[in-house]
Every structure is written in C-alpha cells, then in structure tokens.
Write a structure and sequence with these properties.
3-stranded antiparallel β-sheet, elongated, 132 residues, 5-stranded antiparallel β-sheet, alpha+beta, YjbQ family protein, Jelly Rolls
C-alpha cells in the first residue's frame, strides 16, 4: 500500500519536519523489519535527512542554498522559479530509511524534512513501507 499525506508550506522556502507522520505510517503498517521509501512528486520540492534538534541547522541550510542558488539568478525558465527547480535537484525527490524493530533507523539527531522551494503550497508526500 502507498500512503499519501499532504504538507502545507507557509513560506516560499521552508524545511518541514515530517518525521512524526512517517513514524505513524510505520506504526500503522506494523512492519518490524524493512525499508521505508519516501517520495515527493513535485519538481520544486525535495526531501532531506538532517538534524532536527537545533532549528538553526534548518536556517543555515536554507540560507546557504539561497546563497548558492539565488532566487534572482541568470535563468532562462520563464516561470520565475528556476532556483526552486535547481534546489529540488540538489536535495533530491526521495529518501529511503531502514526499519528495524518497528522503528525508523535514524540517527539520534536526524529527522526527515520536506523541502519546499516554491511555496507556499499544499504538496503530497508518498510513502511505501516494504517488509523484509
């Protein structure tokens, strides 16, 4: 079964911690051992795994992505969101996390983040848990 849930961003660029939603899906599936695939079907959004204990990490990631790929760069794409496409390519559109003993195998400080680069918008996240 593929699980889908919505994420509502409130800013143009934003990292939203979706770890709790993913954990609830793992619990509902009752998978003890397996893999969890997380995917976003959007060209201007992505996924990353990083520290979720200190909010300054999220701020730093967003600030340096903006510095590396500025909103108003020399782009040819006419929709005005070329930077969002590039940032989404840098983060990627999927993540895979191992599941063991019914829990995501994340590091102590790790969380799963939905990366919005062209918001605010309502987006979808798809999750597939595969038992092993």
């Amino acid at each position: 079964m593929i699980h889908t849930f919505n994420v509502q961003s409130t800013q143009r660029c934003q990292l939203l911690d979706i770890t709790p939603q993913i954990r609830r899906i793992i619990e509902a599936e009752k998978v003890e051992e397996g893999v969890c695939h997380i995917y976003v079907p959007h060209t201007t959004a992505g996924l990353t795994i990083n520290e979720h204990a200190d909010p300054s990490v999220v701020r730093d990631i967003l600030a340096h992505l903006e510095k590396a790929v500025p909103r108003n760069g020399d782009y040819r794409h006419l929709e005005g969101n070329s930077d969002a496409h590039i940032k989404a390519s840098l983060t990627g559109s999927s993540q895979t996390v191992l599941v063991s003993n019914g829990r995501l195998l994340l590091g102590t400080w790790q969380g799963i983040f939905f990366c919005e680069f062209d918001g605010p918008r309502q987006r979808k996240v798809l999750v597939k848990v595969i038992p092993c």
